[in-house]
Amino acid sequence: MENNWVRVYTTQDAVTAEIIKQGLMENDIAAVVMNKKDSSYQTFGTVDIMVSAADLEAADAYIKSIESE
């Protein structure tokens, strides 16, 4: 099975990324967190949330809905 993962959200905060990932998964959208932060300092880099290309629209709609709350 081949997955075409695309970035749907980027943040500096790993906790925020995990919360959004959990919300996506609760809405039946497979998601993974890709932590690109430097492990020594944790101040450089980003944390990306990746979803399947097929779920991109649904994931984007979910994220926009929680940001507007």
Describe the structure in your own words.
By secondary structure, the protein is α+β, with helices and mostly antiparallel strands. It has a domain at 5-52. 36% of the residues lie in helices and 26% in strands. It is built from two helices and three strands; from the N terminus they run E-H-E-E-H. The protein has helices at 14-26, 56-67; strands at residues 5-11, 31-35, 47-52. It has a three-stranded antiparallel beta sheet with strand order 1-3-2, with helices on one face. The longest helix is centred in the N-terminal third of the chain and has 13 residues, at 14-26. The radius of gyration is 12 Å and the shape is globular. The N and C termini lie far apart (36 Å). The mean pLDDT is 90.
Short structural summary:
The chain has 2 helices and 3 strands; from the N terminus they run βαββα.
The coarse silhouette is globular
Please report which band the strand proportion falls in: under 5%, 5-15%, 15-25%, 25-35%, 35-45% or over 45%. Answer: 25-35%
User: Roughly what is the average pLDDT, rounded to an integer?
Assistant: 90
Distance between the termini: 36 Å
Rg is 12 Å
**In which range does the helix fraction lie?**
25-40%
Q: Tell me about the biggest sheet?
A: 3 strands, antiparallel
Element-level helix/strand string: EHEEH
Poorly predicted regions are none
The strand order across the widest sheet is: 1-3-2
Number-wise, the strands total: 3
Q: Can you count the helices?
A: 2
Q: Structural class given helices, strands, pairing?
A: alpha+beta
